[in-house]
């Protein structure tokens, strides 16, 4: 009889703990997106100068999502205490070699990971992370390079080896692809909402190809060469009407092309003086038409005004916040947050443009 009673108590305890696990599992607490913020964030230029740009955090992937169980019912708190759940749980599926970034209209952040051959999708409001791991039902990503928010809340991802640009919906599901066989080595992408066109830097063909939403080519900008309006291995693109910025990488310069008037401006030149280029990569505009450009060889972010005057630099080689190791892609969202793919440091560094001061 004692043995039966002991077994009965044991079964009851097991059922109790099982119910606790079920309760916790069926109502998993929400996860919240949090930037990895250092104890001391640098500003640029440093004091006593007036700060124009501030470092505000780092994005590395699922480790930015914190599972918070503080805002739960008493029963869930008791359950968590009994079974020993930590107050926060962090996952570890993070980026390895980020090469490009984009932010869509809903604030979803996309990071192209050249190391994983996939694209990280972070919904900062919903607190979810997912990966776009295949280019299409019949293509695996081989060399994804760039990502851009385009029409109808969709995104475009270029793959330089596959010679295609792949289109996905807002949830990261495959829609279509374009560019084959016209694209030789598609890299940088940018959307022109004025003309409802997707512009693709074709680095092997030394030009920019312009497609409509049906994937029909509408224009080809530039040709091989060193003159104004010509390119040598163009990589990343940016657009703020009417200006198209092209990182003319092997010509060691940035070119600005006015899509309305056809005017061409050249920014920077080959050299080792700060403000010059060796290997320019990512480009972007802030809300005041300042142009930001990555100098990947010397690990700097260089900033110019729209007329090409050099304003300031930040960065340098290293692992501290505000330093980089072979940075590549760059994007600036509508709130003037600056996202830099710090490739060999395995992170996306996030800065805030503080605006023009009186």
What does this structure look like?
The chain has one domain: TolB, C-terminal domain (Neuraminidase). Helix content is 10%, strand content 43%. The protein is built from two helices and 30 strands. It has helices at 2-26, 74-83; strands spanning 31-33, 43-44, 53-59, 65-68, 88-90, 98-103, 109-113, 118-123, 128-132, 134-136, 139-140, 144-149, 155-159, 164-168, 174-178, 186-192, 197-202, 207-211, 217-221, 234-240, 243-248, 253-258, 264-267, 280-285, 291-295, 300-304, 310-315, 327-332, 337-342, 347-353. The chain has a five-stranded antiparallel β-sheet, with no helix packed on it. It has a four-stranded antiparallel β-sheet with strand order 6-7-8-9, with no helix packed on it. A four-stranded antiparallel β-sheet has the order 12-13-14-15, with no helix packed on it. The longest helix has 25 residues, at 2-26. It is globular. 38% of the residues are buried. Mean pLDDT is 88; it is low at 14-29, 68-72 and 75-91.
């Amino acid at each position: 009889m004692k043995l039966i009673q002991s077994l009965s108590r044991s079964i009851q305890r097991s059922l109790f703990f099982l119910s606790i696990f079920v309760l916790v599992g069926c109502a998993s607490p929400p996860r919240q997106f949090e930037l990895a913020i250092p104890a001391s964030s640098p500003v640029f230029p440093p004091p006593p100068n007036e700060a124009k740009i501030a470092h505000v955090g780092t994005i590395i992937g699922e480790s930015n999502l914190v599972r918070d169980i503080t805002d739960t019912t008493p029963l869930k708190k008791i359950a968590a205490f009994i079974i020993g759940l930590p107050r926060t749980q962090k996952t570890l599926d993070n980026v390895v070699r980020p090469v490009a970034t984009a932010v869509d209209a809903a604030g979803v952040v996309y990071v192209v990971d050249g190391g994983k051959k996939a694209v990280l999708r972070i919904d900062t409001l919903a607190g979810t992370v997912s990966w776009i791991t295949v280019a299409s039902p019949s293509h695996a990503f081989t060399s994804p390079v760039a990502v851009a928010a385009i029409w109808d809340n969709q995104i475009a991802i270029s793959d330089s080896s596959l010679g295609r640009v792949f289109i996905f919906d807002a949830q990261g599901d495959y829609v279509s692809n374009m560019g084959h066989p016209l694209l030789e080595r598609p890299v940088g992408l940018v959307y022109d909402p004025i003309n409802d066109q997707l512009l693709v830097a074709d680095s092997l063909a030394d030009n920019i190809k312009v497609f409509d939403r049906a994937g029909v080519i509408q224009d080809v900008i530039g040709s091989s060469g060193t003159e104004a309006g010509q390119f040598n291995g163009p990589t990343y693109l940016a657009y703020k009407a009417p200006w198209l910025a092209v990182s003319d990488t092997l010509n060691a310069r940035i070119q600005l092309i006015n899509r309305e008037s056809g005017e061409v401006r050249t920014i920077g030149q080959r050299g080792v003086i700060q403000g010059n280029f060796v290997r320019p990569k990512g480009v972007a505009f802030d809300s005041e038409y300042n142009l930001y450009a990555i100098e990947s060889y010397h690990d700097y972010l260089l900033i110019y005004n729209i007329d090409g005057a050099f304003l300031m630099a930040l960065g340098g080689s290293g692992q501290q916040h505000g330093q980089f190791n072979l940075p590549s892609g760059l994007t600036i969202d509508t709130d003037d947050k600056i996202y830099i793919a710090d490739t060999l440091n395995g992170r996306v560094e996030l800065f805030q443009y503080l605006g023009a001061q009186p």
